[in-house]
Amino acid sequence: MSGAAPVAVRGGRLGAHRTTRWSTRIEVVVTDPALVVGASRILDDELDRIEAVASRFRADSEISRLHRQADASPVPVSPELYDAIDVALRAAAMTDGAVDPTVGAALCRLGYDRDFAEVSGGVDGALPAPAPVPGWRSIVLDPDAVTVTLPPGTLLDLGATAKAWAADRATAAIAARLGCGVLVSLGGDLAVRSAPEGGFTVGVADICGDPDAPTAVSIVSGGLATSGVGNRHWLLGGTPVHHVVDPSTGLPVDTCWRTVSVAAASSVDANTASTASLVFGESAPAWLESRALPSRLVRHDGTVVTVAGWPDDTGTGTGGPA
Amino acid sequence: MSANRRAGNHQQRVDPHRAARLQRDAGLERARSITKGLAFGSVAAVACAGLYLSQALPGHSTSAGTASNGTAGAATPGTAPAAGPSTGSSGSYSSPAAPAYTPAPAYSQAPVVSSGSS
Prior knowledge:
Chain A has helices at 36-54, 62-69, 79-94, 104-109, 116-119, 159-178, 267-280, 284-290; strands at residues 7-9, 14-21, 24-30, 75-76, 140-142, 147-149, 182-186, 189-193, 200-207, 215-219, 222-228, 233-236, 239-242, 245-246, 251-252, 257-264, 295-299, 304-307, 320-321. Chain A is an alpha+beta fold. The longest helix of chain A is centred in the middle third of the chain and has 20 residues, at 159-178.
């Protein structure tokens, strides 16, 4: 992350640092420009730890070692990997399995078995036959022994939660250690602590980093995440596929939504809900509304649906306490 | 004098039924006091015992739920139930938590970041 210089934004009242990692855009914004270098170091450390523990693309990561040892017997793991898997299982529980971490092998069959930068140009192969993933209920966590039990052949993909979890953790660490307001965005999964008056202004777009975002909202606290099928996609033997897998088929989800943005109490919760909404399809607005999660859903034809108080794109809506 | 003696005799001759009633009422009053004391004492004892036990045995958190292990068929100390509360490293809830503040429209400010699919 050290390759990018800090920049001042909003008239110098905020400091920001932007770079690329994990084939995605990494940003940290703080309310004291003098603290931006320290904040980016804390964020770097956090991302280093998460990557060393939870990246399935690194052969030396702890989760890769866990996959190699998976034989239906308990494997001792570090508290951080335990927590990362625990967060993923809670996401699965909260969505009745729509966001399931056992999609790792399905993603590999689709060719997504290495960093996305190496996949985006297309991979050889053919679309596999539909088959349900092993299922999150097959994973056993023992909190006392700090062990994880995986059925043989099960590969975990924590991509649906690990980025957002890292954003939550980094934001908390920066706010606690530097005592400033902070926003951390990891590929559009963002977390906010101690925002300045009026909040942080966040553009909401189909693609993370789009400077021409069609709408913008102010975020005071918690998390905001956008999930979509229009960015991380590739060709598998000529067939277009993307990274959001339907656990019931092991294939890319066929969704009516191009993108779903959700505000929640944390980045993990926001990303859990936005990813699940892609899987839920037409029932997503009702599911989000029933949970009081302000959301913006965009259909493939560009039609926008807003629920639970998310301001519409014309500016209607006041925001404020939920 | 004779009138005074008559009056004294009248005071000494108490109605035996009334005396019995008074004695009964006094007994009942004593029983009520004892019962009340026992009730207060019991409540206080239970409260003290509860307080002591809550300090002595503060309980334990579980990250786990009670879901069954559909594939492995073993006990599931770690996984959370599909519906119902689960306790993890970041709290306990069964649904994504709503934000404290609803996002407000912010069309006049230049965004500091953008959220989009990545």
